[in-house]
Amino acid sequence: MIGADAAIATAEGIRINALPTVVRGAREVEPLVSVQGEGIVVSSVKLADDGSGDVIVRVYEALGRRATGELTIGFEHREVREVTLIEDDIDDARTGGALRLRPFEVRTLRIVR
């Protein structure tokens, strides 16, 4: 039996459940968001439920340890702030693209356009 650590299990889960999408066109398509930081995964990118045009990004730490990283945004925006899972504002929300996550922490970010 071959053992799998959290990194292997996460990579395999993404490979199986998030198949790549092929887009053909005249030029490369740049990602809306990307993240740098070992163990930090972008789990979803969607429009905010309130119809504002803001973008909601969910990230999580997948390796079971503290992680730091940076969220890079590929479109014009005014600010990035943390919100609740149901996209409500948080009074003392952290802002910006810097990420500091605890083991297995999930964070929801609102990118204000």
Q: What labels would you give this structure?
A:
globular, 4-stranded antiparallel sheet, 113 residues, mainly beta, 11% helix, Immunoglobulin-like, 1 helix
Task: Produce a short descriptive summary.
This protein is about 10% helix and about 35% strand. It is mostly beta strands and about 110 residues long.
Verbal overview:
The protein has one helix and seven strands; from the N terminus they run αβββββββ. It is mainly beta. It has a single domain (6-112), classed as Immunoglobulin-like (Sandwich). A four-stranded antiparallel beta sheet has the order 2-3-7-5, with no helix packed on it. A three-stranded antiparallel beta sheet has the order 1-4-6, with no helix packed on it. The termini are far apart. The model has no long low-confidence stretch (mean pLDDT 88).
* CATH class designation: Mainly Beta
Biggest pleated-sheet summary: 4 strands, antiparallel
Q: Rg from C-alpha positions?
A: 15 Å
Distance separating the two termini: 49 Å
Q: Assign the CATH topology.
A: Immunoglobulin-like
Low-confidence stretches: none
Query: pLDDT average, as an integer?
Result: 88
Number of strands: 7
Quickly give the CATH architecture.
Answer: Sandwich
Q: Which percent band covers the strand fraction?
A: 35-45%
